[in-house]
Structure formats: structure tokens, C-alpha cells
Amino acid sequence: MPxxxxxxxPHRGGGGGGGxxxxxxxxxxxxxxxxxxxFSDEDASIETMSHCSGYSDPSSFAEDGPEVLxxxxxxxxxxxxxxxxxxxxxxxxxxxRQAALEGVKNALSSKVLYEFVLERRMTLTDSIERCLKKGxxxxxxxxxxxxxxLCIQLGPGLESEEILxxxxxxxxxxxxxxxxxxxxxxxxxxxxxxxCFIATDDITELYSTLECLESIFSKAYVKEKDNxxxxxxxxxxxxxxxxxxxxxLLTICPISEVKKKLELHFHKLPSLLSCDDVNMRIAAxxxxxxxxxxxxxxxxxxFYEDIDSLTQMLRALATDxxxxxxxxxxxxxxSVFRDVLRAVEERDFPTETVKFGxxxxxxxxxxxxxxxxxxxxxxxxxxxxxxxxxEFLRNVFELxxxxxxxxxxxxxxxxxxxxxxxxxxxxxxxxxxxxxKCRDKRADVGEFF
Length: 449
Hints:
- This protein has 23 helices and 2 strands.
- The longest helix is centred in the C-terminal third of the chain and has 32 residues, at 417-448.
- A hairpin with a 2-residue loop joins strand 1 and strand 2.
- It has a two-stranded antiparallel sheet.
- Helices cover 66% and strands 2% of the residues.
- By secondary structure, the protein is an all-alpha fold.
- It is globular and about 60 Å long.
- Residues 390-443 form the Interferon-related developmental regulator C-terminal domain.
- Residues 48-345 form the Interferon-related developmental regulator N-terminal domain.
- Residues 1-42 are annotated as: Disordered.
- InterPro entries: ARM-like (IPR011989), ARM-type_fold (IPR016024), IFRD (IPR039777), Interferon-rel_develop_reg_C (IPR006921), Interferon-rel_develop_reg_N (IPR007701).
């Protein structure tokens, strides 16, 4: 049967065609949720597809993302599909709500839709609030992730402040709820930090968020009398996210508050370097490097009392060769701690270059690196597009106003999927050939001896 006829066929137990009313009534009636395949090129126009097929399967949008629409559709197609997904965030099915939240999040991560989001911010906030309160672990994670992207879209201002006032208490409750899912608490901790970084205009609210986050990660500290290795637990991922969100907020605090936090945590953070979880060791090491940078920014002659023992610990991690650890983890750890050790000993930072479109951004400090890493975690591959067009992020990284490019220039810069495939294939062949030559040389040396 042709695809378009399949798509317009009536639902089981339902009435007629595919109008939006029919889709809604089917969902509210509690009927089985049927997966609808994403529409193809032959029936991609709004006139030839039913309302139901346009957005009754939010998972298709979550998987494909707006990239397909960029290449084959229009802005109107994207907004039309997003309206349907926003409606589905209120569906009775938890799976449908979760997939709809993820679909909206993926779209807003990859496109800047300020006007569209501004008009629907109340609806989106209500949906997120409901999913955070009544949803289970995965749904809460999807709702918190969407809240972060929503604030990034709107930037600092009254709208984002209203979102934080509405969602902040709920996020805080989930983070501190020992009975809630660890994964949900972890995502909420990141979301709370990002939203507060963007939206908070009240210094007391900022301090309250800092205290909430440090009450979580400080539980991972090794007690002074206990010199054993810190073992990872199911809460370790939550401690990591809370520590990184706390460090992000510390970068926007007044100097007086930064000094208080440094005095409180500078001598406790090194205990996390002994954790048997590589991600915790890395998070603690990078946080320490950032704290040193902040401290020396306030006092050029800043002196750390236990500098010898700290550098000894950092040097051991930078040259770690323990056989019981995975090679990938050791390689990643050594790379990070070489930079951390250099920051502590020599006050140096290895400058990194980030390319996006025709522009370049230089990451030349730990503060900038940590901020970049946080937004990369939230936006994923969509960060490059946001760096080009999102005024808030461009202000954060001091990039100036967006660079205006004409359509012809953008078209020449864009690489098609086929060209990407060819490029990746050629690169793979080149790497394989180089490895083969290297192996041949080692074989010759072995035979010679």
C-alpha cells in the first residue's frame, strides 16, 4: 500500500481521517499509541499530509531532529511540527509526553526560535512544571533538559526570571529528594545551575542555589580522619553534576562571596581526587584549576598552604599508569591533569580554538572552558549554531553581534551529507593505511632481531 494512503488511514477504533481533533480524541480516549513513520519527500507538504501524521509520533522528530527540515523543508514546517509537539507534552501517555519534550528540546537546541518561544513560554513552562511534578525519572530528565534550553533561547530578562521562579523550587525539591531517581536529580542539578546562571537577578537567590548544590557534592568529601580511597557510589554522578553546576555559578559571584567559598572548599576539594571514579577525579581537578584562577585573579600573590602535597597528587594523576584502570580513562585523565598541574604550578592555560561557521573563538581560561563545556553538555552539536546566532551566548563569550552572511555564502559553507560521507570514508581509509604501515615496520624490526 502506498505510504500516503497508509498514513491517512483511520485509527483503530477511531472515526475518520487524520485531523488534529481526531489525534487528540484518540489520545484522551486511552487508545493504544501507534507509531507513525516520519513523512517522506513525496508527501512532505502540509497540504498532502494529515495533521496526525505531522506530529503524532514525537519520537521521529526527536531522532531525526531539525536537520532534515533545514535541508528539505521550511521554517513554517518546523514551527508547525513544534506546535504539535508542544500539544503532546500534555498527553495522557507518559511515553508520548517524554518523546514530545525531547523533540522540542532537540529542535530548540539546534535552532534559535526566539519569537516562537517567547509567544509560548507560558505553555512550555506549564508543561515542564507538570512533568517535573508528576512524571517519573525519564520524563523529569526530559523536562529539566528542556527547561535549560528554554532559558538559553530567551536569555537573561523577565521571561527567564519568571521561568526560574516557577521551576526553581521544584528543581530544588527534586535535587534534595533522597527518594527521587539519581538520574533525574543529576539532570535537575545541571538545569538549576544553568537556569540560575542565565536568569537570576537576585543575589540572595544565587547564594541559595549555591548552598543547595554544595550541600549535595560536599557529602562526597573524605573525612579528615579517613585517608582511604574514596569509593564511588550510585550518588557519584549526582555529586559530579552538582559540583560542576556550583563551579559555574561561582564564576558570576561577587568577590566577597568567592572568597568565602574558597576558604570553605579549597582544602576539602582535593579529597575528591582520590575517588575511584575517573569522572569525579576530572571534575574535581578542573574545579580546583578554576578556583586557583579565580583566587589569583583577586590576589596576584595568592598562596596555597598545601601546594606541595597538592602538586604531588596532581603529578601522580598526570602520570597515572595503574593497570587496573581502563586505557581510555587513563589517557583522558592524564591529558586533563597535565593541564591542571600546569595551571597550579605555572599559572598557564593551553589555549583551545573553537570553529563555528566562518568564526573562531579562543578559549584561554578555565572559566571560559568550564562555561563552554557546560553549554556544550546542554546543547550538544547545536552549540555551534547558537554561537553564531544566539545573542546571549555571544555576549557570554564576548563574540560581539552576530555576523550577517548572505544566503549564497551560507550555501557554499554548508557540506551535504553525501560530501560528509565521502570525507569520513577517505579519512577512515587513510587512518587504516597508516596503521597498516606502522604494524609492518614493527614486524620487520621483530624479524631483524
